[in-house]
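# step 3/5: fold
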Amino acid sequence: ATGQGVVVAVVDTGYRPHEDLLANILPGYDFISDAGMANDGDGRDNDARDPGDALVRGECGEGFPPEDTNSSWHGTHVAGTIAAVTNNRRGVAGVAYNAKVLPLRVLGKCGGYTTDITDAIYWAAGLSVDGVPDNPNPAQVINLSLGSSTEADCLNTYRNAIDAARAAGAVVVIASGNSSKNANKFPPGNCEAALSVAATNRDGGRAFYSNYGTVIDVAAPGGAKSFENDPNGILSTIETGTDEPEGDGYGFYQGTSMAAPHVAGLAALVFSRGNVSVTDVENIIVNTSRPFPASCEGCGSGIVDASVAVQASGKANLAVEILTDGVAVNEGRVTYDVEVVNNGFASARNVRLVHTLPEGSVLQSASATQGNCDTGSLQCDLGDMSKGKTVTVTVVATITGKDQLFVAEVSGDASEFSMEDNRSEARFGGAAALIVLVSLLLAWRRRLNQF
């Protein structure tokens, strides 16, 4: 997986046309409505390039910032982690280096407005925003490496925008915040419908600044620096200008802002495998994360594991079970169902069920809800099965004696096929209705929940 065909929206400070990034940049939009904050001479427009956000001391009021600050080029750094051009012998590698970045500018001098941010979320997902042309490149992933430094609940404006984006088919990834406090108190990372991301340091523990809490879903590398351009940060694309743009460069940054795009890039990888929903992608990322090698209490399920997540997203998994509930045994005649389920995240092709009756038994009939069964051999060709698909085969047979063993096995063709639960056994008595089921399916369900 490389993210091919997936669009990732970066809701941030905009972008710079960096040589190591530009080939993967789509035409975005500048959603900053305040001309002074935009620092480009006007309000909203179709130019998402970042002119810089340098500040002089006290420029934003109330003594903020306490000292002069250089331009951050924050959106360019975030975009590079997601989709910097790769295999070009230059700079850094993007997590999903064949994905496309849709830059949406919402942060400028002194920050940004909630209304600008939420409008960008709607637009990123392909939904209409008054006064803005429709988005021709709707995103499957929306990254928000931003947040409030003031404690508050998840605002309804954020909640509504995130819910609408998910309903439109986009995973929303949000940095949890850098206050080293309970993330449940800082929007929009505390909005439960989004994937909230904590940051880890090089040792795999919680970075000293990272927020934590029950709202966080997963963690990713965010870096933890001790000095300017400390290589214990996250390296990505930046501008070299301290105020205005001067040229391409690379720099080490730290923050949950750097952790979130690792997760957004992984979401693009999983989407690029195809045939997965928003919920599938979220569950795969969370459930395939690896344990923390160092202390990271309140950091979610673990550190994202791209390799395992991508493998999980590309597998079909067929499970078969001889159902025992409601089985009718009457004077040696038994009617029962065999259920085949694709529990994986990809389709299985040419699915086949082979069922063996105990010696002395006689098959009367076999029929499937999909495909055809050969009543002579009790082999069924069930055709193709998409993820989540269930096919039921109803069998009628005559049996004699007690405690007779029936065996069902399923197979099929698929890329990276998993066949851990492809056999089921059951015993039916010809003279009594004693039923004993031996099935691996329950064990599989436990594994599926845990990954």
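# step 4/5: annotate
Residues 232 and 336 are 61 Å apart (CA to CA).
# step 5/5: archive (pending)
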